Amino acid sequence: MALQPDDDRAADGAGNARLGHDAGPGSAVAARFLHVQTTTDSRAEAMELAHDAVQARLAACAQVAGPMASTFWWEDSIERAEEWLVMLKLPADRYGELADFLIERHSYDEPEIIATPIVAGSAGYLDWITEETRPR
Question: 19-28, long-range: CB within 8 Å, 24+ apart, which pairs?
Fold first, then answer.
């Protein structure tokens, strides 16, 4: 069964993360589940972050993709780098813990940590995310 955006399991107003965006003051998106991504400059670090976040039950699953070419501003210069993308799925209420975990363990001075709301998904998959991220 696919969830629709108005399904209370996909997004509701009770106890869910509020993710701000550029639409103006007071605007936010409520989400019950998130897709969080970060990048690293090595496959080894990406694999370690993915494994350790899942092992700590901060995310139900993580994928590593790469290498990919990145171009970005850093210290007043345009830089290019080969990076690996780490993608994690988790309940929105675990975001703070995951962000703290990534900041603490990441090798970058200012790591990319971006959360995107999951507005719909199969009921079984979303239930699985919830179950696998419960502290044991």
Answer: 19/92, 19/115, 19/117
3-state secondary structure of 32: coil
pLDDT digits (tens, 9 = 90+) for 25-52: 443 557 899 999 999 999 999 999 999 9
**6-27 per-position pLDDT tens digit:** 443 333 343 444 443 343 444 3
Q: What does 102-132 look like in DSSP terms, one character per residue?
A: HHHH-SSSS---EEEEE---BHHHHHHHHHH
In order of their start, the domains of the chain are 27-132 (3.30.70.120)
How does DSSP assign 44-80, residue by residue?
HHHHHHHHHHHHTTS-SEEEEEEEEEEEEEETTEEEE
Neighbours of 122 (CB within 10 A): 11
Higher pLDDT, 122 or 21: 122
CB 91 within 8 A of CB 9: no
